[in-house]
Amino acid sequence: MQAWQVHQTGEPAEAMRLQEVDRPTPGAGQVLLKVRAANINFPDALMCRGQYQVRPPLPFTPGVEICGETEDGRRVIANPALPHGGFAEYAIADAAALLPAPDALDDAEAAALHIGYQTGWFGLHRRARLEAGETLLVHAAAGGVGSAAVQLGKAAGATVIGVVGGADKAAVARELGCDVVIDRRAEDVIGAVKEATGGRGADVIYDPVGGEAFTQSTKVVAFEGRIVVVGFASGSIPSPALNHALVKNYAILGLHWGLYNTKNPKLVLHCHERLTELAARGAIKPLVSERVPLSEAGAAVQRVADGVTTGRIAVVPALQNGAAA
Q: Which site in 39, 176, 187, 325 is 20 to 30 Å from 290, CA atoms measured?
């Protein structure tokens, strides 16, 4: 079968190589899945660079989120068991962790429903306890992680402010349903948020960016507000001033979604059931901006690494070069 492999860490476009390899053999408690679609996540780029908390042995195939097909024809969502990741024709996954792919979503959309939306649901509902009528601020609102949080916030009855970088991404954020869109390249984020909220600030702030975005968050968080830290796409990990959190009376909440798979897996299943219901009634729908054939996966991961994409890019092995999705 064909699979992308990383033999030496580096930038994805250089580190990933498409090769003919043996089909992986499932171990105890695992199943072989035909990959119908693999969603590209920022951690895939970090793994290629050797900068992610999970460092699979070399060589490995990246791709942490797929919609796959079991040998008996069931369509499922899975996190492949590394080093046999999803940017391949076949992957393996733990049988106990398979989730049914929602009928309301196609393969690429289903592949994109899992990590980003689970992270959003746990961040907004489990950690921040977002309530209807509150104001939610989402950094990188047009990206894969941010777009999921925008849709989940709207579904929860919140007023959503989206922060993006550039006019194209601003247009995407509006289409996603943001009530207010702030282009950080053209506007003062702090001033714009205060104006949009009458000086009160945002009740919940969802931050997959870190760096300057976190600093901005601390200046626009409302009384008893909650800042949910879900990642550091900027490459800069902030050092919060806890005296500031004390004086302004806000909370800083960390979220590592992957821990729930081992600490409380029943909650992951409960979340998936809620997400499936939301998808069935059209309240959420993953924004898949591109569907690319397997041969273009390396270049696509690099674009995600460079931060120039909107929504999600899905790798669809059944597509041929130049074919329409």
A: 187
With the C-alpha atoms ordered 108, 111, 114, 116, is the resulting torsion angle positive or negative? negative
Report how far residue 183's alpha carbon sits from residue 168's, in angstroms, rounded to the nearest whole number. Answer: 10
If phi > 0 it is left, if psi is from -120 to 50 it is alpha, else beta; for residue 49 that is alpha
pTM of this prediction?
0.91
Rounded to whole angstroms, the Cα distance separating 63 from 43 reads: 9
- Answer whether the bond into residue 83 is a cis peptide, omega within 30°: yes
- Distance, in Å, from the CA atom of 294 to the CA atom of 204, rounded to the nearest integer, reads 38
Q: What are the Cα distances from residue 185, in Å, to 70, 163, 179, 222?
A: 45, 10, 19, 24
Q: Interhelix angle for 144-155 vs 167-176, to 10°? A: 30
Phi/psi of residue 30, each to 5°?
Answer: -110, 160
In this structure, are residues 153 and 128 in contact, taking their beta carbons and an 8 Å threshold?
no
Tell me how far apart the alpha carbons of residues 185 and 28 are, in angstroms, rounded to a whole number.
51
Query: How far is CA 88 from its chain centroid?
Result: 20
Give the pLDDT band of residue 235 (cuts 50, 70, 90). Answer: confident
Q: How far apart are CA 185 and CA 273, in angstroms?
A: 38
pLDDT 10s digits, 82-135: 999 999 999 999 999 999 999 999 999 999 999 999 999 999 999 999 999 999
Give me the phi and psi of 193, to 5 degrees please: -65, -45
Count other Cβ atoms within 10 Å, centred on residue 23: 13
Structure tokens at 315: 């790798």
Nearest to 279 by CA among 110, 144, 78: 110
Per DSSP, helices labelled H in the chain are: 12-15, 42-49, 107-111, 115-121, 144-155, 167-176, 189-196, 212-220, 242-248, 260-263, 265-280, 297-306
Contacts of 84 (CB under 8 A, 6+ apart): 24, 60, 61, 91, 92
Decide: 189 and 182 in contact? Cβ < 8 Å: yes
DSSP state of 198: T
